[in-house]
Automatic annotation (TrEMBL):
Gene3D superfamilies: 1.10.8.60, 3.30.230.10. Belongs to the peptidase S16 family. This is Os09g0533400 protein. Keywords: ATP-binding, Hydrolase, Nucleotide-binding, Protease, Serine protease. Coiled coil: none annotated. InterPro entries: Lon_lid, Lon_proteolytic, Lon_Prtase, P-loop_NTPase, Peptidase_S16_AS, Ribosomal_Su5_D2-typ_SF, Ribsml_uS5_D2-typ_fold_subgr. GO terms for molecular function: ATP binding; ATP-dependent peptidase activity; serine-type endopeptidase activity. Residues 103-288 form the Lon proteolytic domain. Pfam families: Lon_C, Lon_lid. One of its GO terms (biological process) is proteolysis.
Length: 298
């Protein structure tokens, strides 16, 4: 909840902060020990003087077996729990419920991307508005990912009737409206074809008014005929899904061999869904599957 980077720089910083907090605690206990040793001779002298003058002395009885020196000479260990983490590192920087919050409305899906720093979770948002049938793309996107968005929209329009998005195939989904697709984290450049299946899922979610499963992330390039092609960086993408708390990951079937690189403990906590075609992606991405018309041959 405090670091999700592919490397360990921020992890090292957080561990160093905890180590400094422990060092401060030890130093405080050491100061108390020195202070106790300095006070003891003074207390003994005052006691002897008081007794010599015949004065009364108020005594505190200490139970047998309790060694005062142990309080200082054996400092108690520092227990690092959630309360300690928040006290030292501050409030958590990441929230495991973020995916559920961001996929709470139709048109949003969860993708997996690869960057120079490793795998990352990438949300894809789509919305419709009154317009002339144009496609708007934002999020500092490269040419390849823009082409993937255009391809995804073309495929959805061509299969609208089969996907129950329109009553007949001759109805234009973009009649009198524009589509805007946004990739959040606008300051980060994005490119590559692996968001193809995520783009299709967002568009189908938008047009069908159905929410995508928040526990499911996906990656894969797609063709105009609906085939799902293999992508790179599978290990890092799967690790990113695990860090983010994702439970189900949709991957191209031809990437199955790449799963051998993922540590077994990580794989055991994920449901890996291998697909060949985009309709399989849609079937896994929506609660209850994605209903297709009986005559549909995608």
């Amino acid at each position: 909840r405090y670091t999700r980077e592919a490397g360990v720089r921020n992890l090292e910083r957080n561990l160093a902060a905890l180590a400094r907090a422990a060092a401060v605690k030890v130093a405080e206990q050491d100061s108390a020990l020195r202070l106790g040793k300095e006070i003891q001779p003074i207390t003994t002298t005052l006691l002897d003087s008081r007794l010599a003058d015949g004065g009364e002395v108020e005594m505190e009885v200490i139970p047998m077996g309790q060694d005062i020196s142990n309080t200082y000479e054996n400092p108690s260990p520092m227990i690092v729990d959630e309360a300690m983490l928040e006290k030292v590192l501050g409030p958590p920087r990441f929230d495991d419920s973020e995916a559920a919050d961001r996929v709470a409305s139709p048109g949003v899906s969860v993708g997996l991307v690869w960057t120079s720093f490793g795998g990352e979770v990438q949300f894809v948002e789509a919305t419709a508005m009154v317009g002339k049938g144009d496609l708007h793309l934002t999020g500092q996107l490269g040419d390849v990912i823009k082409e993937s968005a255009q391809l995804a929209l073309t495929w959805v329009r061509a299969r609208a009737a089969d996907l129950n998005l329109s009553p007949t195939s001759d109805i234009n989904l973009l009649e009198s409206r524009d589509i805007h697709i946004h990739f959040p984290a606008g300051a980060v450049p994005k490119d590559g074809p692996s968001a193809g299946v995520t783009l299709v899922t967002s568009l189908v979610s938008l047009f069908s008014h159905r929410k995508v499963r928040a526990d499911t992330a996906m990656t894969g390039e797609m063709t105009l005929r609906g085939l799902v092609l293999p992508v790179g960086g599978v290990k890092d993408k799967v690790l990113a899904a695990h860090r983010y708390g994702i439970k189900r990951v949709i991957l191209p079937e031809r990437n199955m061999k790449d799963l051998a690189e993922v540590p077994a403990p990580i794989l055991s906590g994920l449901e890996i869904l291998l697909v060949k075609r985009i309709e399989e992606v849609l079937d896994h991405a929506f609660e209850g599957g994605c209903p297709l018309r009986p005559h549909s041959k995608l």
